[in-house]
Amino acid sequence: MVDSLYVYGRFLTVSVRAQMQYRASFLMQLGGRLIVTAGEFAAILILFDRFGSLLEWNVYQVAFIYGIVNVSFAVADALTTGFDLFGDMVKTGDFDRLLLRPRSTALQLAGQELTLRRISRLTPGIVALIWASTGLDLHWTIPNAALLVASVIGGASLFASLIVFQATLAFWTTETLEMMNTVTYGGVETTQYPINIYRPWFRNFFTFGIPLATVSYFPALAIMGVPDPLGTPIWFQYIAPVIGVGVLVVSLQVWRIGVRHYLSTGS
Amino acid sequence: MPQIIVENLVKHFRVSQRDTGVLGALRGLAHRRYETVKALDGVTFEIGPGELLGYVGPNGAGKSTTVKVMSGILVPDYGRCEILGLVPWKDRSRHVRHLGVVFGQRTQLWWDLPVIESFDLLRDIYRVPRHEYVKNLDEFVAVMDIESCLDTPVRQLSLGQRMRCDLAGALLHSPKLLFLDEPTIGMDAVSKVAFRQFIKRFNRERETTVILTTHDMNDIEAICDRLMIINSGKLLYDGGLDALRQQMSFERSLVVEMTDAGSPQVHPAAQLAMMNGRRVHIRFDPKQISAAALISDFTAHNDVDDLFVEDPPIEEIIARFYEGNDVG
Q: A178-191 and A59-79 are packed helices; what angle lies between their axes, rounded to 10 degrees?
């Protein structure tokens, strides 16, 4: 396990070094990404400037949830680029190369690339968190800080598992699955707002179906000390992030089924 | 005790048939038609430690399917495959630890990074002990002349340099088996010769078992002791190169540089195939007249400056072998 983590770290270092070979291109892409994500956040601010609040939520509370979701997604997105490329790797036969090495394919794919420019999403997320924390005058006790970290880990795990699920489908079909992208990116857009603003069926989908709201919205309430307008108990808000890690474990098991299918069909 | 045991391997592939045109594509969506292709049809062989084996066959013959099964990245439908006591696909991770693979068509090195960084990462992936890694690297650098490549990004290497680095990378963890898939494809003549020598050398000195699939028969002729020919999923031949030559009764050529131009007198058992100025090609069947008898007869009747006997290239022999076995 420790050895696997070490190798994973080595993979990522190598990936970062490779990207640094093209520094100018990297900086330009990073800049472009920054402008786009900052623009998204600015849009929320402008909305609040015009309307003052969103149901019972003030701008800082929304910014806090926005921050958790975007930091989670940025981490997951940067770490799973290998799975995004996986469909092509099957077509070109490069996936065989991973199978020829004495390491798990999931580890190698996750380590394939740490896409630095995708980390740019971290910046507006972190800025939003700090800004919201000051505005809400949050007290960073140890339980609160731990819950924030847990929430980001749970969120990142959940986003990562969605990407793993999507990649797994490539074992069975070569068609690109835009539907899964809709869920992932749509999930980011949706859950960066407090979910009680949506219609019940919609928020149930993101609470129970694809629990993206579960791992961000509920812990955020606990940290901010705001009672849930939907009435969930406080203990649930604390354990909610675990669900994200659970789904990731499930997705990796499904991935293994996919690999076994690949070994028997060879395509 | 054989290192590789392959017994009665069978593998089918389902290939989806697509109809042409828009209507056909729509029909394909509704229900897809499949055709079953038999890639391996009862392949059996054993390979001992330290053998250097050439594996040839036309495209789609079953070569790469066999190699994939032996690499643990493909599960056969029936049959047995045991390598160093392990079933490759059941124990993939442990199996591939003893395996080095070089693809001529694609590199396993990190394209944008200096070669040495790829080597360092491979060391960690295979958990190669430091002293072993240093010893291997020093040897490869000295033997394969890749010192100057180590700090160069892979994308800037010539093909010959890259393949040498790829070979070094595949051997860093001292594998017991080395699979080479068309390693010399696209190389210039000098690089090819050097590359073959490295393979021979590592095979001899480390007793690494080498399985070489290739379309370049010169690779086989230069380094392999044993040859397997596969076609349509069946092994057609498994044995030595010389035995194959003898089995395929074939004609040899006597090439003579005459002292003067003019029609030479040729033994009735042989025939004059070609005349080009003073150079004469004579074809003969060794079963009817031996090379020695033909030469003494020819030199007795003609003035000769120089002569030599030529075997048909191995390519021609194998091509005739396919024809003789009526390949479909």
A: 150
C-alpha A212, offset from chain centre = 9
Q: Length of chain B in residues, anyone?
A: 328
Specify the pLDDT at position A243.
93
CATH architecture entry for B48-245: 3-Layer(aba) Sandwich (3.40)
Reported as a single tens digit per residue, the pLDDT across A44-69 is 788 887 877 787 888 899 999 999 99
User: Kindly report the CA angle at B53 between B47 and B58, in degrees rounded to 5?
Assistant: 115
Range of the domain at A11: 2-265
Q: Alpha helices, DSSP H only, in B13-74?
A: 21-30, 63-71
CATH number at B251-311 = 3.30.70
Cα(A109)–Cα(A8) distance, integer angstroms: 10
Q: How many CB pairs under 8 A join A and B?
A: 68
Closest CA to A132 of A45, A259, A50, A2: A45
Among partner residues A21, A94, A99, which is closest to B92 by beta-carbon distance?
A: A99
Q: Is residue A194 pLDDT above 90, yes or no? A: no
Listed residue (A11, A133, A101, A83) closest to A248, CA to CA: A83
Domain assignments of chain B as residue spans, ordered by start: 48-245, 251-311
Choosing among A16, A21, A263, A267, which should be mutated to test the B contact, i.e. which has the most B CBs within 10 A?
A263
Distances (CA, A) of B105 to A87, A92, A109, A156, B145: 20, 11, 21, 37, 22
- CB of A14 within 8 Å of any CB in chain B? yes
> Which residues in chain B are closer than 8 Å to A265, comparing Cβ atoms?
13-14
Cα–Cα nearest to A224, from A74, A82, A64: A64
User: In a 3-state reduction of DSSP, which class is residue B137?
Assistant: helix
Q: Which of A17, A101, A107, A112 to mutate to test the interface with B (most CBs of B within 10 A)?
A: A101
Would you say residue A17 has pLDDT above 90?
no
DSSP states along A195-241? GGGS-HHHHHIIIIISTTTTTTHHHHHHHHTPPPTT---HHHHHHHH
Q: Does an H or E element contain A257, and which?
A: helix A234-265
CA A116 and chain centroid, separation? 15
Distance of alpha carbon A232 from the chain centroid: 24
Q: ∠ CA(A110), CA(B83), CA(A257), 5° rounding?
A: 35
Residue B5 in contact with residue B80, Cβ under 8 Å?
A: yes
Cα–Cα dist B289/B292, whole Å:
8
The four Cα atoms B281, B283, B288, B289 give a dihedral, to 10 degrees, of 10
Contact B94, B86 (CB under 8 A): yes
Give how many domains chain A has, as a whole number.
Answer: 1
Mean pLDDT of the region B218-231: 90
Is the CB of B96 less than 8 angstroms away from the CB of A99?
A: yes
CA distance B216 to chain A (A): 22
